[in-house]
């Protein structure tokens, strides 16, 4: 069983063999749990990651709307797209 060291800012590196076995990649979302003297990391799905990002966007006001109808929503999206160009 590979060991890990807690580094500055309490960072730990997941051993390569474990990352490969679990197919963990940079940017993946892991849930940290502590129970009975153990720390467990549970890989979350891409949907969980996207949901977390979406909730963070809402929390920081990075959204448009709400809209009363689809036409208003499409109009706002078109205007936002024009501003990016």
Can you give a write-up of this model?
The protein is built from 3 helices and 2 strands. Strand 1 and strand 2 form a beta hairpin. The protein is elongated and about 60 Å long. A two-stranded antiparallel ribbon has the order 1-2. The protein has about 80 residues and is α+β, with helices and mostly antiparallel strands. About 40% of the residues lie in helices and about 15% in strands. The chain has helices at about 15-20, 45-60, 70-85, and strands spanning about 30-35, 40-45. The relative contact order is 0.08. The protein has one domain (about 10-85).
List the secondary-structure elements in sequence, H or E. Answer: HEEHH
Percent strand equals 5-15%
Question: What is the count of β-strands?
Answer: 2
The share of residues in helices is 40-55%
> What structural category arises from helix and sheet content?
alpha+beta
Question: What's the average pLDDT?
Answer: 90
Figure out the total of helices. 3
Query: How many domain modules?
Result: 1
* Alpha carbon gap, first and last residue: 52 Å
Any idea what the shape is?
A: elongated
* Rounded Rg: 20 Å
Unreliable runs: none
Mind describing the biggest β-sheet?
2 strands, antiparallel
Give the strand order of the largest sheet, numbering strands 1, 2, ... along the chain: 1-2
